[in-house]
Structures are given as C-alpha cells and as structure tokens.
C-alpha cells in the first residue's frame, strides 16, 4: 500500500509540474521532493538570492512504517525540519549546507523518543529536474539511553522543480 501511494504521489508531482518544466529561464525559486534512506519523503523550498547562484531554503519531511512483528522490534516514525543554503555553480550540480533536527518516536508510542540535532551537507548531481547524491549529517543523537556524537549518511534522489 505504501509503495502504491508513493508511486501515485510521484506521478501527480510530474503531472502538475509539466508546464513549469518546459521553461528554460532561471527561476527565483525551487521546489524539491527528496527520497532518502533516513526519511521516506521530504519537501523543500529554496529561494534565489538576488540573481546569484545561491539559494536559501527550508524543508520538512518524515517517514512512517506500520508495526512489523516479523523482526520483533520497534519500528520508528521519523520527522525532520531543516534550514539550508544551496549553491548551484553549474546546471548539473548543486550543494546544500544546513542545520537539521530529526525526531524519532517508536511505533508503540512509549516514552523512548529520540532526536538528532546537527548540520548536514548534500552533494547532488543530475540534469534539469532529476538529481542523485549523498547526504552527510553530523551532530548529536539523543535517546532514552543517553546521547552521543556521530554521523549519518544517506543516498538521496531529488526531483527539483523551478518556480
């Protein structure tokens, strides 16, 4: 069911953005839809700074999985928010640098919640509207067992729509 819903969302995104995708001029805004290993889905908006190659943006997203008794463990729900700066020196590459907060809560709603506070950098390669890359997050993870400093890496796919 989750895969079918996700597929329908992608088709809807492509259909709505068809007229926007035909424009060749530099736009002032970008709408991004990311799919990654850490979170299932993320939506972001970035606004160009005074005709330059720099953008400032904000994003939100999350993931949800049904309780899975096969593995006999908690399945985590994830949500996140982030602020970022994007540099786009060439048409086929862009880099994000920002601050993020990820929250984790177990499926059974007990008190063992956790969070990850830190910064991240993403390097994305692609052409026009489809980009692939890597996201590296560095920060402090805190949960019911305590806290520790660490990194999280994730491959990311992004659909970027100029606005």
In brief:
The chain is mostly beta strands and 163 residues long. The protein has helices spanning 2-16, 18-21; strands spanning 29-36, 41-48, 54-63, 76-90, 93-106, 114-127, 130-143, 146-162.
Strand order of the largest sheet: 1-2-3-4-5-6-7-8
- List the domain count as a whole number: 1
Mean pLDDT: 80
Order of helices and strands: HHEEEEEEEE
**Architecture in CATH?**
Beta Barrel
What is the approximate shape? elongated
Summed up, the helix count is: 2
Strand content: over 45%
The first-to-last residue Cα distance is: 31 Å
Helix content, binned percent: 10-25%
The CATH class is identified as Mainly Beta
Q: Radius of gyration in whole Å, from Cα?
A: 17 Å
Described by strand count, sense and barrel closure, the largest sheet is: 8 strands, antiparallel, barrel
The CATH topology is given as: Porin
By helix and strand content, what is the structural category?
Answer: mainly beta
Description:
The chain is mainly beta. It has a single domain (2-162), classed as Beta Barrel (Porin). It is built from two helices and eight strands, in the order ααββββββββ. The chain has helices at residues 2-16, 18-21; strands at residues 29-36, 41-48, 54-63, 76-90, 93-106, 114-127, 130-143, 146-162. The longest helix has 15 residues, at 2-16. The chain is elongated.
């Amino acid at each position: 069911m989750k895969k079918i819903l996700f597929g329908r969302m992608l088709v809807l995104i492509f259909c709505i953005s068809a007229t926007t995708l035909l424009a060749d001029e530099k736009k002032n805004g970008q709408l991004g839809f990311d799919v990654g290993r850490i979170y299932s889905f993320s939506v972001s908006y970035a606004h160009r700074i005074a005709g330059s190659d720099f953008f400032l943006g904000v994003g939100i997203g999350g993931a949800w999985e049904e309780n899975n008794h096969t593995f006999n463990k908690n399945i985590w729900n994830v949500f996140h928010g982030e602020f970022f700066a994007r540099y786009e020196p060439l048409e086929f590459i862009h880099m994000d640098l920002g601050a993020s907060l990820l929250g984790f809560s177990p499926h059974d709603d007990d008190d063992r919640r956790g969070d990850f506070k830190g910064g991240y950098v993403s390097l994305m390669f692609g052409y026009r509207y489809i980009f692939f890359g890597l996201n590296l997050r560095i920060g402090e993870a805190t949960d019911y067992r305590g806290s520790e400093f660490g990194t999280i890496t994730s491959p990311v796919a992004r659909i970027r729509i100029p606005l």
